[in-house]
Amino acid sequence: MSKTAVHGRFRLMTALMIFTAFLFIPLQLSAMGGSESAAPAGQSPDTAQPEEQVQNSSEGESAAPVPSSIQTREQALAALRNIGMTVFDEAVEAPDFTLNYLNGDEVSLSDFRGKVVFLNFWATWCGPCRVEMPSMNDLYADLKNEDFVLLAVNQQEEPSVVSDFVDKEGYDFPILMDRNGRTSYQYGVRGIPTTYIIGPDGNVIAGKVGTHIYDGEQYRSLFRQLMQG
Q1: Residue 115: CB atoms within 10 Å
Q2: Class of 3-227 per CATH?
Q3: Mean pLDDT by 10-residue block, N- to C-terminus, for the chain (229 residues)?
Q4: Residues 6+ away with beta carbon under 8 Å from 158
Q5: 43-61 CB burial, b ≥16 within 10 A, e <16
């Protein structure tokens, strides 16, 4: 598949992911007992875009919880759908990229072939991103010594701004700098946070636009099942 075709596929899937995020809004508000605030037209309350007012997230809770124990891949995929992720029904290879860590070292996505990759696009100004990041840090701490990696791709900010934010919050997961926005373009990112789950074979398993809280042993069980391929 050509790069143009792959990009078009990701743009299509991102549109579906945004649609799925909007479907989950009534469920989230119901779980919260309702909300008086509204997101700007065309924007989910758990996503943000540059130059726009940042809205608070609904804490990322979905109406359908993840089972405490996941034994099969089918259960894992069902759990991903339950938290509002769009599961890719056909094999789509994740576009490779090379970016710099905050310290300047280069890394490529292909370096992590054989592992489950939690690929998250974010920015320091994004309120919904900040909501989910503590749970992402806990998830990374629990699984980093297994076949799992979390890569948080920052959206075109200055390294000094990102470094100050990460140091203040105490996050340990790897931060990558997408200074020219090329990687975000490859992945069809239209709003943040956007998250993709990539399998050990390098194919995208699922994606989500919007916040989610990845707390609890059930998420460790979910990703361990995905590690089995």
Answers
A1: 17
A2: alpha beta
A3: 57 63 46 40 52 38 66 94 91 95 97 99 97 98 98 98 98 98 94 97 96 93 95
A4: none
A5: bbbbbbeeeeeebebbebb
Contact 127, 55 (CB under 8 A): yes
- For 169, other C-beta atoms within 10 Å of its C-beta total 12
Which of 123, 105, 120, 106 has its CA nearest to residue 161?
A: 123
Q: Could you count the other beta carbons within 10 Å of the beta carbon of residue 156?
A: 12
β-strands 116-122, 98-101: how paired?
unpaired
* Side chain identity at residue 4, one-letter code: T
User: How many whole angstroms separate alpha carbon 130 and alpha carbon 226?
Assistant: 26
Model pLDDT, residue 42: 42
Tell me the DSSP string of 54-67: PPPP-TT--SSPPP
Distance between first and last Cα of the chain: 22
The pLDDT assigned to 13 comes to: 67
Nearest partner of 102 among 169, 184, 159, judged by Cα: 159
Q: How many residues does the chain have?
A: 229
State pTM to two decimals: 0.80
Q: Would strands 194-198 and 204-209 be described as parallel, antiparallel, or unpaired?
A: antiparallel
Q: For the chain, which residues make up each domain, given as ranges?
A: 3-227
pLDDT at 69: 81
* Sign of the four-CA dihedral 10, 17, 108, 125: positive
Report yes or no: 153 and 99 within 8 Å, Cβ to Cβ.
yes
